[in-house]
Amino acid sequence: MGLSMYMWRQEMKRPFGVNFIAYDPFIPDSMFSGHYVDRAETLEELFEKSDFVSVHTPYMPATHHIIGKDQINRMKAGGLLVITGRGGVVDEGAVLKALDGGKLANIGTDVIEDEINNTSVLIGHPKVVMTPHCGYYSEDASADLKTQVFEQIVETVRDHNPPKHLLNKEVLGKARFETK
User: Both 122 and 143 in a single domain?
Assistant: First the structure.
């Protein structure tokens, strides 16, 4: 849920029989083609078709508890949930009930809803794996990000190519400067 940059490399897992389906209402259909990712038209469809849901959704008022009891109950029994977006997107109380009731087998997360007080009903649960929210802070991730940004700038300025993952295509042709 939330078509993150990690989804663009999913074709590597295709030979292992893994099918990817994603739901992101902000990404145009054209972004799905050629990336071995099928589009779920609704959040409900995503949960109905998934054994494993990975959440990369940013937090904002519109996404507060966007995943709760109704969505989790649409999954097959024994589903897996990974939350790496932001705390507050998932209703932790609903997740706890699903874990205790067997609807969810396990969850993995690097975010909790109340990060200021570091409290969550999920902390210490035997079916929950928690890690620090620090994937970006590795040397490799930082170097890779810098390289990708630099390559995109060079391709855009030198070769006059639009950025590969440009979401707001309406800005094309409206540059404030010209290159020769």
Answer: no
pLDDT at 7: 53
Give me the number of domains the chain comprises.
2
Q: Are 38 and 18 in contact (CB under 8 A)?
A: no
pLDDT tens for residues 47-66? 999 888 888 888 888 889 99
CATH of the domain at 53: 3.40.50.720
Query: Percentages helix, strand, coil for the chain, rounded to the nearest 5?
Result: 35, 15, 50
Q: How many angstroms separate the CA atoms of 104 and 97, rounded?
A: 9
pTM: 0.66
Is 48 known to be catalytic?
Answer: no
In a domain? residue 176: no
User: 165 lies in which domain range?
Assistant: 139-171
Q: In the predicted model, is pLDDT for residue 93 greater than 80?
A: yes
Which one of 43-47, 56-60, 143-147, 173-177 scores highest in mean pLDDT? 43-47
26, 82 in Cβ contact below 8 A?
A: no
Active-site annotation holds for 86 = yes
Asked about 41 being catalytic, the answer comes back as no
Q: Which of 11, 44, 115, 151 is catalytic?
A: 115
Structure tokens, 111: 């975010």
Q: Are residues 163 and 92 in the same domain?
A: no
